[in-house]
Amino acid sequence: MTVFLTTAGNGNPSPWFSIILIGAMLALLYFTMFRPQRKQEKEINEMRSKLSVGDEIVTIGGIVGIIIAINTSSSGEDTITIVTSRDRTRIMLLKSAVSRVQVPANAGNDEKAKDTKEN
Questions:
Q1: Helices marked H in 7-105 — which ranges?
Q2: What is the pLDDT of residues 102-119, one digit of tens each?
Q3: Which of 29, 34, 65, 79 could form a disulfide with 84 if both were Cys (CB 3.0 to 4.6 A apart)?
Q4: What is the largest CA-CA distance in the chain?
Q5: Cα three-residue angle 88-92-93, rounded to 5 degrees
Q6: C-beta of residue 65 within 8 angstroms of C-beta of residue 56
Q7: Smallest Cα–Cα separation from 102: which of 55, 63, 62, 70?
Q8: How far apart are CA 110 and CA 83, in angstroms?
Q9: Partners of 90 in the beta sheet?
Q10: What CA–CA distance (Å, rounded) separates 43 from 96?
């Protein structure tokens, strides 16, 4: 079988060897580039769907703020309103502009619950 894949009888490479090599390269490309990207997109979409009031977020532009309102629309473009400073500056953003959640809203509640259980 090895002879079948490597030579066509007259010393020239078999066309099957080339086809299998190209298929292996495409599979390698898929598993190293496209699959991790889809996994990361899935995680980001999951994070954005779990946003709640009180979460401290960072936007793709670097703005840090706390979510005070989440608005859903029929067009599918959900928006959030954040407070960014001590002056209570409000900014309305699309959910797709959220890069990451720094402090989830329930993170403080979990710590308080642990403290009350220990006492």
A1: 15-29, 35-49
A2: 988 876 555 544 443 444
A3: 65
A4: 84
A5: 130
A6: yes
A7: 55
A8: 23
A9: 83
A10: 13
Tokens representing 117 are 């259980």
Please say whether the beta carbons of 84 and 91 come within 8 A.
Answer: yes
Relative to beta strand 64-71, strand 56-59 is antiparallel
**CA nearest 82: which of 72, 67, 99, 71?**
67
d(CA 100, CA 16): 48
DSSP 8-state code for residue 76 = S
| 90 in Cβ contact with 80 (< 8 Å) | no
Q: How many CA atoms lie within 13 A of 79 on its CB side?
A: 9
* Three-state DSSP state, 100: strand
Query: What whole-number distance in Å separates Cα of residue 70 and Cα of residue 77?
Result: 11
What does the alpha-carbon distance between residue 20 and residue 28 come to, in Å, rounded to a whole number? 12
